[in-house]
Amino acid sequence: MHEKLKNIRRQKISHISFNIGLYCNQMCAHCHLNSGPERTEAMDWPLMAKMAEFIKISQPDSFEITGGAPELNPYISEFIRKIRPLVKKISMRTNLTALELNKKSENNSGNKNRFIKFLYENSISLVASLPCYEEEEVRIQRGEGVFEKSIEVLKELNDIGYGKSAIPALDLVFNPIFPTLPPQQSMLELKFKEILNNNFGIEFNNLIAMTNVPVGRLAENLKIKNSYDGYINLLRKNFNEENLAKLMCISQVTIDWKGRFYDCDFNLAIDMPKNGLSNIDLILGLTNSGKNSGVNQSDNNILNNLLIGKRIFTGGHCLACTAGSGSSCHGALQE
Ligand code: SF4
Ligand code: SF4
Predict the structure, then answer these.
(1) Order of strands, edge to edge, in the sheet holding 89-94?
(2) In angstroms, what is the span from residue 67 Cα to ligand 1's centroid?
(3) Is 43 within the bounds of a domain?
(4) Residue 111: what pLDDT?
(5) Residues with Cβ < 8 Å from 296, sequence gap 6 or more?
(6) What is the pLDDT of residue 197?
């Protein structure tokens, strides 16, 4: 790890990312969480209800639901209904093909995808994985038939209104297929927009270019191909100090399907620190004891008091966030 990554400290938390489980219909080669159809980790309803209570007291500016494939959790619609009035900006990460699977659920009739309509009506922005505008690259990284299904779902999202205005947004996520850094995000966005529009008539809002973080299945695959050390060296060689102040872990926290807090989804993937930094039970317990003793716990003081100024757990994998233009779940850190 780079020396300068050893003392990164958290500031005020404005964004909460909520990973509701590792079940996924895909098994992508680059998945940092080792998600797939065999994974059984999933958030249950009692914890989702607690999570809604937690959102009410922590009041983040934005809240993101991720997985696995979050749209395949049986309680997803109920959860969205519950939290919709509690936070202004809500987004959900999707692999697109899981939205297509949802279409076949009993709630849908014919070709109409009522779940997509539900998301749009509730102003849920979507952050959708599409690592390339070409079939072959998507097939190699995400599996046979994924490109075709993704295009079909993107068209359906456009038909319903996604990608046509700023909110709810439809953003696409790019990550490199080979052990390289992503190209410049703004240039790549122009290329994606031109090709997807010319070839399929698809529109979207923003392109998020992410650097692959060498943990989980990606790390395993790099090791099998003897590319792991070379990739780490590439990240180290491109260390850019300007990214340090913009790292996403400085202003956000990730919560997993058991209610445990992590610095980010990558630390969650490697369980760093073991069993998390804290959990929502602790925060809810502190809030209730504050109420009982007459202390007014407005704002997100308890969460921030617990975590502001605390050292972020960093490791060699963090070099992916600091290389070149920088990287985060929300895109490049520099333009
Ligand atoms: S990268 Fe996303 S879509 Fe692919 S296996 Fe992992 S969670 Fe599923
Ligand atoms: S992987 Fe990135 S976001 Fe996570 S702790 Fe390291 S630097 Fe921060």
Answers:
(1) 207-209, 170-174, 124-129, 89-94, 62-66, 15-19, 252-255, 261-262
(2) 8
(3) yes
(4) 52
(5) 290
(6) 97
Determine the residue of 23, 31, 146 to mutate for testing ligand 1's pocket, defined as the one with the most ligand atoms within 8 A of the Cβ atom: 31
Structural domain span for residue 175: 3-322
Q: Which atom of ligand 2 is nearest to the CA of 213?
A: 1
Q: Compute the distance from residue 32 Cα to the ligand 1 centre, in Å.
A: 8
Q: Is residue 335 part of a domain?
A: no
Q: So what's the pLDDT on residue 303?
A: 81
pTM: 0.93
- Position 2 scores a pLDDT of 80
**How many structural domains compose the chain?**
1
Q: How far is CA 176 from CA 132, 222, 240, 320, in A?
A: 9, 13, 19, 12
Give the per-residue pLDDT at 106: 47
- The pairing of strands 252-255 and 261-262 is antiparallel
Residues in contact with 273: Cβ distance below 8 Å, sequence separation at least 6, in sequence order: 267, 313
CB 35 near ligand 1, within 6 Å: yes
The Cα–Cα gap between 88 and 78 comes to 17
321 C-beta closer than 6 A to ligand 1:
no
Alpha helices, H only, 4-134 = 45-58, 76-83, 97-103, 114-121
- pLDDT value, residue 107: 53
Cα-to-centroid distance, 3 and ligand 1 (Å): 31
206 Rama class: left (phi>0) / alpha (psi -120 to 50) / beta: beta
Q: What is the pLDDT of residues 149-176, one digit of tens each?
A: 999 999 999 999 999 999 999 999 999 9
Q: How far does the centroid of ligand 2 lie from the alpha carbon of residue 101, in Å?
A: 32
- Sequence letter at residue 67: G
Whole-number Å distance between alpha carbons of 160 and 203: 12
Which portions of the chain are predicted below pLDDT 70? 102-112, 289-301
Q: What is the CATH number of the domain that holds 206?
A: 3.20.20
Q: Is residue 217 part of a domain?
A: yes
52 domain residue, yes or no: yes
